[in-house]
Specification:
Elements lengths: L4 E4 L8 H11 L3 E4 L6 H18 L2 E5 L2 H6 L4 E4 L6 H8 L4 E6 L2 H10 L3 E4 L16 H14 L6 E4 L7 H6 L4 E4 L1 H4 L4 H11 L6
Parallel strand pairs: 1-2, 1-8, 2-3, 3-4, 4-5, 5-6, 6-7, 7-8
The structure holds ligand LCLJCK34, 4-methyl-5-hydroxyethylthiazole phosphate and magnesium ion.
């Protein structure tokens, strides 16, 4: 089952990826995406190996951003791949049927392509501006996200959509009403002074149950 809250790891001013992952798991997240930028493959592998242990302790799923070989090596639960990353079909060949494969969409055409490629979920964004990612694609806003979700209904495309990009707690009801399965957030949790409360607030806005 694809969780409705995808937590995305970050290094913050005083905390490493691993410290932030442990705190997010303590606060109740059950889906962790390790998103390490600007480090060597060996460094990412070392962090991913420890992240796997933390996630195992808290029974959270671990998804590796960008690095298919590392996901395979640490037996992660899946990978997330954007347009500049490995093709999802190639990743499926390497990883086999079980691991989740997520893809990034910024447009309706991306959603159609990823659905054809058989991804397990689609990260759709950016919902709004954010400093967490460089070189953002054009902002979709609630109108852009809703239009794409309407096209999915018309085209009978049923891949779970995870909205991403600058999401705040007060956005989540609207995103969920527009048909999103869930949300992916980094700074909302990583910069929170009370991560448990933040995670509870987010989960309160998301429906229970399976897709
Ligand atoms: C859930 C989710 N959606 C989208 C992204 C963005 O992936 P990508 O386009 O490959 O950009 P980077 O994260 O690699 O900078 C994501 N990571 N997660
Ligand atoms: C990885 C990614 N892809 C599109 S926006 C984004 C960053 C999400 O982080 P935040 O929730 O802090 O805006
Ligand atoms: Mg990527």
């Amino acid at each position: 089952m694809i969780s409705r809250l995808h937590y995305i790891s970050q290094e913050t001013a005083d905390k490493s990826h691993l410290q932030n992952i442990e705190e997010a798991c303590q606060a109740g997240v059950d889906w962790v995406q390790l998103r390490v930028k600007n480090k060597s493959d060996n460094e990412v592998l070392a962090i991913a190996t420890e992240a796997k242990e933390i996630c195992k302790k808290y029974k959270a799923k671990l998804i590796i951003n960008d690095h298919v070989a590392i996901a395979k090596k640490v037996k992660a639960n899946g990978v997330h791949l954007g347009k500049e990353d490995m093709d999802p079909a190639e990743a499926r060949e390497i990883l086999g049927d079980r691991p989740y494969i997520g893809g990034t969409a910024n447009t309706w055409e991306d959603v159609e392509r990823l659905a054809m490629a058989g991804v397990d979920y689609i990260g759709l964004g950016p919902f709004r501006d954010t400093s967490t990612k460089e070189n953002l694609s054009p902002i979709l806003g609630i109108k852009g996200i809703s239009a794409i979700l309407n096209n999915m209904i018309i085209g009978d495309i049923q891949v779970p959509i995870i909205a991403i990009g600058g999401i705040q707690t007060e956005d989540i009801f609207d995103l969920q009403l527009s048909g999103c399965h869930g949300v992916a957030v980094a700074s909302l949790i990583n910069l929170s002074d009370n991560k448990k409360e933040t995670v509870n607030d987010i989960n309160y806005c998301l429906p229970d149950g399976e897709f």
